[in-house]
Design a protein that fits this description.
Elements lengths: L1 H13 L1 H5 L7 E2 L6 E2 L4 H6 L12 H6 L9 H4 L15 H10 L7 H10 L4 E5 L6 H16 L19 E4 L3 H14 L7 E4 L5 H11 L3 E4 L1 H8 L13 E4 L2 H6 L3 H10 L9 E6 L4 H10 L5 E5 L8 H4 L2 E6 L5 H18 L7 E5 L3 H12 L12 E4 L5 H13 L3 E5 L14 E5 L5 H8 L10 E7 L3 H7 L5 E3 L4 H4 L9 H15 L3 H12 L9 H15 L7 E2 L1 H7 L8 E2 L85
Parallel strand pairs: 3-8, 3-9, 4-6, 4-7, 5-6, 7-8, 10-15, 10-16, 11-13, 11-14, 12-13, 14-15, 17-18
Antiparallel strand pairs: 1-2
Helix pairs in contact: 7-8, 8-9, 9-18, 11-13, 16-22, 17-23
Length: about 675
């Protein structure tokens, strides 16, 4: 039985047998839902490697089959709860249950919630492998809140809010991203509504002083934070934030926190908390994968002689990236990207109107850098797709927006029945947006794992969805190398993808898409495209795509579609540092143009700049689709850069490094497209 469980676990790509074998030595005894770890002497734990580790059963049926092996008579072991209203049997406070069943209107637990709430309420430490979007937030919030109320019953009364103190934090929840931390904070406040528990959030991208003042004024019992900001707060005595009696410590998305470089911050945070030997606390660690570094983290944090490992991922379940239909659209160039998106959206909107069972068009557009997100957001808002009266709301999320704007846009898109979110990879993992019908990735994804995480934003909670990957023909070879073994199928139905701009006469429908995009370019500040030009020159290349290919694609986009007479200039020092000074097609020099864009305030619906001054806006140089007299036969050439001022505007280029968001298994050698 144990050997079979480990084999199933290994099939998930986590190499659990090898990685978890060093976690702790312990004896196993049968339990109805999970085998519990018995305490061993310290000497034994040091000398004996782990031979066995228990995996939580994958379904309620299999759990029930083991009911006769019950060995623990505690409430959490007597009942295997699957309905929230039955949490009272486990001693959960009725105020918590009321918030879930009456306010949130939840009845049955998801399988992940049942498999985590039940063991966590026993008070032992927990290491849980659980995917995002499965309801695991309540899976750790319920036991955390109940533990606090059990330790201090005054927290159950709303009157406690008057006595809450920022110097007496009882629980800390760590999240890898601002968006996910804010999302957890919203859920936690809902759960705390009828209690006296005060929930605060502390994330990067917000003003530290204002957040600390709010925390000092209102107090804090549960703090949801990102690692960097929490490390800063706890190490600074002037913040007057402390956790001398901390009861619970939760790490959500532990694998991602380590992937993005928070290992040192987490270690510092643990060192700043009172030792477990002095103040006992429960540690709940959740992770979508269990690679070696997560094992090491768990080993340093959980009580290794008294913890459960909970497996909530069914190996027989088809993963999203294998279940969702995925289409590859090969375009003649980058200039076809945006018309292709308009065509995909147009078709999906028509399908939703004709098929009552189809999801309304609600799409996330993923780009691999912030500059392209800003540019695309502005362009699409200026097309009929983003029209104030006849279009749909378009939002954006990227690293240059303030946290308030990112949170507001995420919540607005979450509530929207139809709309578009233009995003960088900050939303590729952890964020839960309901009823996303389309995930459209434009340009090469940085790696296979990131592609999978992006696709996972659709087809959630049993809903339908589809993925689209839009690439220039020159990028296909590199995509095959980066995305092996994925069910991506070529789709030749998007006619605007195969049209070569400036050659022949397209169909009226295709011409309309290009013309709409052309007009949008004219209303978009030119410095946004200059930033895109620089950013795409800094993307990760490979054997299938080199910088010369990228320069040719960018220059065609610039001169044919935007109508510029000259491509953006690369400053000499920057060109030398990047190795671009010898690349054919690169213009070395300086550009002088007024910075017209300011996207820090973000993407409220149809808030585009009406000042003009875009790409030849209100200017004869601007031109439109197939204008007469245009050079090159496509869009008329547009406004040029003034290269006389050698003060040089800043270099917006920043090289991206790809993150490995999942533990690597053996990958197939070829892609399926």
């Amino acid at each position: 039985m144990f050997k079979f469980s480990l084999q199933r676990h290994a099939r998930l790509g986590n190499l659990a047998r090898r990685q978890l074998s060093t976690l702790v030595s312990q004896q196993i005894r049968s339990r109805p839902v999970v085998a519990s770890c018995q305490r061993l002497a310290q000497r034994e734990r040091q000398l004996v490697p782990l031979r066995q580790i228990a995996l939580r059963l994958y379904s309620q049926e299999s759990a029930a089959a083991y009911a006769n092996t019950q060995t623990d008579d505690s409430p959490a072991s007597l009942y295997n709860i699957t309905r929230f209203e039955d949490l009272s049997k486990l001693g959960v406070d009725e105020r918590i249950i009321r918030a879930i069943t009456v306010d949130m209107k939840y009845d049955n637990m998801t399988e992940v919630q049942s498999l985590t709430i039940n063991p966590a309420l026993k008070g032992i430490d927990l290491v849980a492998q659980a995917k995002t979007g499965t309801g695991k937030t309540l899976g750790f919030l319920v036991p955390v809140f109940q533990r606090l109320i059990t330790a201090d019953p005054s927290l159950a009364s709303p009157q406690h809010r008057r006595d809450a103190s920022s110097q007496d934090i009882r629980a800390i929840i760590l999240s890898p991203t601002r968006e996910l931390a804010e999302q957890i904070g919203v859920e936690a406040r809902k759960l705390a509504r009828h209690t006296g528990i005060v929930v605060q959030t502390a994330v990067g991208g917000t003003r530290k002083r204002e957040a600390m003042f709010k925390m000092q004024r209102e107090g804090c019992d549960v703090l949801v934070a990102t690692p960097g900001r929490l490390q800063d707060i706890l190490s600074d005595p002037s913040t007057k934030v402390d956790a001398p009696k901390i009861q619970s410590f939760v790490l959500d998305e532990a694998d991602r926190m380590l992937d993005v470089g928070f290992a040192d911050a987490i270690r510092d945070i643990v060192d700043l908390l009172p030792p477990i030997s002095q103040v006992d606390r429960q540690t709940l660690l959740f992770s979508a994968t269990i690679p070696r570094d997560v094992v090491h983290l768990a080993k340093s944090m959980v009580k290794t002689d008294n913890f459960d490992f909970v497996q909530t991922i069914n190996p027989d379940e088809t993963p999203t990236h294998a279940r969702v239909p995925q289409h590859l659209v090969s375009t003649k160039g980058y200039e076809n990207w945006f018309p292709a998106v308009l065509e995909i959206a147009d078709q999906a909107i028509k399908d939703a109107k004709s098929d009552p069972d189809a999801l309304p068009f609600k799409a996330i557009l993923f780009f691999s850098n912030t500059a392209t997100v800003q540019f695309a957001n502005r362009v699409f808002k200026n097309t009929p797709l983003g029209h104030r009266m006849t279009g749909m709301p378009i939002f954006d999320i990227h690293s240059k927006l303030s946290q308030d704007v990112r949170t507001r846009n995420a919540e607005a898109f979450r509530r929207a029945q139809t709309g578009i979110l233009v995003s960088s990879d900050v939303t590729a993992r952890g964020m839960d947006f309901p009823n996303v019908s389309h995930v459209i990735q434009i340009g090469l994804p940085p790696d296979r794992d990131q592609y999978i995480h992006r696709v996972g934003r659709t087809g959630r909670a049993g809903k339908s969805g589809e993925g689209w990957l839009i690439l220039a023909e020159e990028e296909i070879r590199e995509a095959r190398a980066r995305l092996p073994g994925l069910p991506i199928k070529p789709n030749h139905a998007i006619k605007s993808a195969s049209y070569t701009l400036g050659e022949g006469t397209p169909s009226p429908e295709v011409a309309k898409y290009f013309e709409d995009v052309s007009k949008a370019y004219q209303r978009t500040p030119r410095d946004l495209f200059a930033a895109v030009y620089n950013a795409l020159l800094g993307q990760k290349f490979g054997k299938g795509l080199d910088v010369e290919d990228c320069v040719r694609l960018l220059n065609n986009w610039c001169t044919k579609a935007l109508g510029w007479e000259e491509t953006p200039a690369i400053p000499p020092a920057s060109a030398r540092n990047r190795g671009l000074d010898r690349v054919s097609g690169i213009r070395i020099g300086f550009d002088n143009y007024e910075r017209e864009s300011d996207d820090r305030r973000g993407g409220s619906f149809n808030s585009f700049d009406r000042r003009g001054g875009g790409f030849g806006s209100n200017d004869r140089r601007g031109g439109g689709f197939s204008s007469s007299g245009g050079r090159g036969g496509g869009f008329d050439s547009g406004s040029r850069f003034n290269s006389r001022d050698r003060r040089g505007g800043g270099d917006p280029f920043a090289r991206r490094s790809s993150s490995d968001f999942e533990s690597r298994g053996r990958q197939p050698s070829r892609a399926s497209f």
